[in-house]
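Ticket opened by: R.M.
Priority: normal
Category: complex prediction / small molecule

The reporter submitted a protein together with guanosine-5'-diphosphate and asked that the result be attached to this ticket for the collaborator who will pick it up next week. Submitted input follows.
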Amino acid sequence: MNEPIVVIVGRPNVGKSTLFNRLTKSSASIVDDSAGVTRDRIYGDVEWNGKHFRLIDTGGYVPDSEDLFETAIREQVEIALEEADAVLFVVDGKSGLTPLDREIANMLRKSTKPYYLLVNKADNPSLESIKYDFYSLGMENLFDISALNGRNLGDFLDDLEAHLKFPDEKNLSDTRLRLSIIGKPNVGKSSLVNALLGYDRSIVTNIPGTTRDSIDSVLKYYGEEIILVDTAGLRRKTKVKENIEFFANVRTYRALWDSDVTILMLDAELGVEKQDQRIIQEAVRRRKGLIIAINKWDLIEKDTNTAKKYEDAVYAKIKTVDYAPIITISALTKQRIYKLIDLAKKVNEERKKKITTSKLNDVLLVEIQNSPPPATPTGKEVKIKYITQVGDHYPIFIFFANEHKYIPEHYKRFLERLIRRHFGFEGVPMTLTFKEK
Ligand code: GDP
Ligand code: GDP
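Result attached by the on-call engineer:
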């Protein structure tokens, strides 16, 4: 189990995105008076009393058509109730109760998941009364809040945290490789999972009553068990096309967060698109092992250079993540699908690899002496004296140096490339930190 996921639902303009921004303390999500603005960041991390959960905003998934938006929101609530660990239903206290609000409330009341009714835009105590209108919804977990200035959010968060389940140590002791297969709809994820397992997973998971707990598949591979994370969520029917993306995102991020190594699948004919870049960024941010699998390779007319050309095109788009291995596969003909699993195992090993301090220093300090970091603005020499690797789950390198705050980004990238050149770490994002000796 991973950090719990909380989803914000509600009509447009009630303040979902404002709430999202305040809770995640980011301003990356666009707040706009016009409904239907597509946002880049729809998920974020929230920390409260030292505990963490993930927050997802549905606000970016509003269809253009007026006729569809009510259906879209109903469907979002359904998806949220299935996928999330808690649902935050935001209403606009200033504009009052609407029929759609009533419907959503009815849906939530039937659920066994924790949910909250947040009556927003109650910016000061004198506006507290705007919540009375909403008492008729019969929901107990009602808070009047202000997403804009934070009023009452502390009380609400205390309550929410008390109702969420956080990961325990037991889950952390399972050492089997957890692999997620991620990619846009139709790239071939289900086909790959089915090819690996030797049966159609969707038939199994369509059995009524299949629960969230059984959504991972176990791949037996030469006596070893590999967990294919969240394979049940590969498909879901949605009426509104925007919700295909919403659903896919919830599922995608959950699977990514819950895995050690992520396989990002691309369609050979489409290449890297914006959504793929977001996945790559998230995999790097979470320090997951990353492999890029170009699928549907059977459809490509090939000569001797074709694979290289495709790889170069992908690397050109993912720039700094050039350490992620690329492999061309076909889920249909099963070409190289086991090579892909071998690669995932290797990346997982690399992720856990430890280089001894003496080896690190022997190799790197000589290189650093030959190409030292630039001096400080006042002409002081910046000296890296000592390097050590820490971290159990992914590599963290600590560089001890004087005046380290003057070490420029490009030099840090140089150091990272140096480590990779000498020690590998293929497919593994790494952390470089700098400390005063
Ligand atoms: P969304 O469409 O539900 O994501 O709504 P937004 O977060 O984009 O907010 C819609 C409008 O309501 C914006 O103009 C916000 O500034 C405003 N708004 C959001 N929260 C509050 C609040 O707590 N108080 C007041 N007065 N305005 C708010
Ligand atoms: P998902 O939405 O990512 O799970 O994609 P699916 O596995 O459902 O595949 C979408 C479509 O692409 C289906 O019609 C598959 O048969 C087809 N497909 C999947 N993998 C391959 C492949 O390697 N080659 C070809 N030619 N078609 C594929």
